[in-house]
Amino acid sequence: MSRFQFKNFTIHQSRSALKVGTDSMLLGASIKSSSPKHGLDIGAGTGVLSLMVAQNHPGILIDAIEIDPNSYEDLTENVLFSDFKNQIQTIHKDFFSCQFIKKFDLIFSNPPFYDDGLKFDQNVIYHSKHTVNFSINNFFLKSKELLEVNGNLWIIVPFDKTKSWVDTAIQNSLSLVKQIIIEAKPGKKVRSILVFSFDENQIMNISNFVVRDSKGYYTQEYHLLTNEFHNKIPLR
Predict the structure, then answer these.
(1) Mean pLDDT calculated for residue range 47-61
(2) In degrees rounded to 5, what are phi and psi of residue 6?
(3) What values do phi and psi take at 109, rounded to 5?
(4) Rounded Cα–Cα distance for residues 103 and 146 (Å)
(5) Where are the alpha helices (DSSP H) in the chain?
(6) Which end of the chain has the least Cβ crowding within 10 Å, N or C?
């Protein structure tokens, strides 16, 4: 699918190897922050997360950084032709080597997370979604440096990798304050949305979210979460 139509913007994705999927839909719709001023989208891809966050937070200014040239072309086009173009600045650089002149009170990312699995030599999908050129420790180290004292970092990772991500965050002085356990169907845990902050005294909130019911239909909670962004998913 070369185009994904949302209610308030369009995602063109013909050049990007990674298309809009359930992960980005869930993370983008879940991100909620109290009047954030500056946001950072790490590995912005087509820009779907930046656009969703901009829609939900009218006052935010977002830096969307993407290293892949093809994804960056889709990103800049999607932002330019959206109603949120004045809220989003696109950056074509490597996140780990980029020098930022400010800190951010909201950082979010759908990061590379497959430590192993099928490898495709020099394939864009592989390098986008696998950790061959990606260090989880460096991800948190750099994010920590850029996060405001009262800011939050939101990510989505595979459920079975949750512990390693959380442990690495803790090693970098970040505390887990929220976990949303994503179930593809009841009882099938597939992803974790994780929220980190510097506040080690904050009580952690854990909840479960089911995408589809036992019959394979999208749940009412999924419809309620994503309704502000699209409404083309049939209830039955």
Answers:
(1) 97
(2) -95, 175
(3) -165, 145
(4) 5
(5) 22-30, 48-56, 69-80, 124-129, 136-146, 162-171, 220-226
(6) C
Query: From residue 91, how far is each of 37, 63, 73, 78, 197 by CA, in Å?
Result: 18, 7, 11, 14, 25
Q: Which of 132, 67, 59 is nearest to 97 (CA)?
A: 67
End-to-end CA distance of the chain: 23
pTM for the predicted model, two decimal places: 0.90
Whose structure tokens read 């950072």? Answer: 40
The CATH number of 3-226, from 3.40.50.150, 3.20.20.70, 3.40.50.1460, 1.10.940.10, is: 3.40.50.150
pLDDT tens-digit series, residues 103-161:
999 999 998 654 433 233 344 443 443 334 578 999 999 999 999 999 999 999 999 99
| 118: exposed, middle or buried (Cβ count in 10 Å: 0-12, 13-18, 19+) | exposed
CA-CA distance, 69 to 75, in Å (whole number)? Answer: 10
